[in-house]
Design brief:
mainly beta; 399 residues
Length: 399
């Protein structure tokens, strides 16, 4: 089990009076945690938390009112053990509506009498699970918004992995320690967290295409204008897998999965956009052995045609892998991906250089990405959402 698996996610279109497909299946494919300490006892600490340990096997029971709010509903989880039997984990998922004071949309029209204002609160549905893998606790949230967006958030907390040292002050350090002195005689070692998500999008149908919209600066040629430049979009339809690989170096590329067989009333292809979060890429050399095994971090985005055997970015048997069954190897065949049943693979990354506040228990650090409608609807789908009734909440008071 690789954590929460979201299947057959669709959005109800009020205008068309039907459910429309968005995500056939989505889940975390791999979680790569390479430590950056080259000493004899540490250099081999490069963990594949999903493939070697299992996010589902390591899932923990959630604590009502602590891990989840009072309105949460809890579900048990099951996984298969090494001898083929099943094991139950109680309260492994919680599902709840979230309203944290966020705004779905608003506008004030100051030019009309009375300063007319319309505001709608953002009420969302959250599916949550927590996996405890060694020293780290990972909180996984899949959040479904009324606007049609799907937001995926991963939060890291737990006990920082440290090593002993003779140093008690930074002035004593004269050589590479591969980390930060975060307490007397304690080094917090630098490391990464790379979380790869398998996103089998079926945007209003099975056959989709992958578009890279490049944002480019254009110089104004009309000398009569005071402006000298503007930017536009140049869309490129990726034809093969090698065309679909992307590194987010400049932020000048937008990622859209479209259904080329369906258009809106005004002629735009129906689609969903990936809004990336933390786009930290691997800093390891590509011929480093552990990087070969974790080669999915060479790019933040990959696109492949659907293949039922290609479930995990680092392969099926990660604990014995030499890097010969990874997404980097599959895509070398350079299969066609235009107007096909395609899978989008996205990697969310964190570089963690520990600081004193991370020790001994690390405050939660979160990263997220969002799948957001892009010309999927003919107009704002939450335009007619009614405001919620007032609810009396407990007030915080200071004494």
């Amino acid at each position: 089990m690789r954590g929460p698996i979201i299947s057959l996610a669709s959005i109800y279109d009020h205008e068309k009076d039907k459910y429309r497909q968005v995500l056939y299946r989505g889940y975390m494919s791999e979680l790569f945690v390479p430590y950056q300490d080259m000493t004899e006892d540490w250099y081999s600490k490069t963990f594949f938390d999903a493939g070697e340990y299992g996010l589902g096997i390591c899932a923990t029971s959630l604590q009502p009112l602590k891990d989840c709010p009072p309105n949460a509903v809890f579900l048990d989880g099951y996984y298969t053990t090494s001898d083929g039997s099943t094991t139950q984990t109680s309260n492994v998922f919680c599902v709840f509506e979230r309203y944290a004071g966020d705004i779905m949309w608003r506008h004030t029209e100051p030019l009309l009498p009375g300063d007319i204002a319309e505001v709608r609160p953002d009420v969302t549905l959250v599916v949550r699970m927590v996996s405890v893998i060694g020293n780290y606790d990972y909180v996984f949230d899949w959040e479904f918004k009324q606007s049609g967006s799907i937001k995926v958030t991963t939060s890291l907390t737990g006990i920082l992995e440290v090593k002993a040292t003779s140093y008690t002050h930074t002035s004593q350090i004269k050589e590479e320690e591969y980390g930060k002195l975060i307490a007397k005689n304690t080094i917090g070692t630098r490391h990464d967290h790379f979380l790869n998500f398998h996103l089998d999008l079926d945007v209003d149908g099975e056959d989709n295409s992958f578009i890279k919209a490049h944002l480019r600066t254009i110089r104004v040629k009309d000398d009569s204008l005071p402006r000298k430049s503007y930017w536009n979009e140049v869309e490129e339809v990726a034809q093969t897998e090698l065309d679909g690989r992307i590194r987010f170096d400049s932020g000048a590329t937008e990622i859209i999965v479209v259904n080329p067989n369906k258009q809106t009333r005004v002629g735009n292809n129906i689609g969903y956009r990936l809004i990336p979060g933390s786009a930290s890429g691997s800093l390891l050399l590509e011929d480093d052995y552990e990087q070969i095994r974790g080669a999915f971090t060479n790019y933040q985005v990959w696109v492949t045609p659907y293949n039922k055997s290609e479930k995990y970015a680092s392969g099926l048997y990660v604990d014995r892998s030499h890097g010969d069954d990874t997404i980097a190897k599959w895509t070398l065949t350079n299969r066609e991906i235009a107007n096909k049943d395609i899978v989008l693979w996205y990697t969310l990354g964190f570089h963690h250089a520990p600081v004193q506040e991370d020790y001994p228990i690390m405050p939660t650090l979160s990263g997220s990405f969002e799948l957001r409608p892009a010309n999927f609807f003919d107009y704002n789908p939450v335009l007619k959402v009614k405001t919620i009734k007032p609810v009396k909440l407990l007030n915080c008071s200071a004494h």
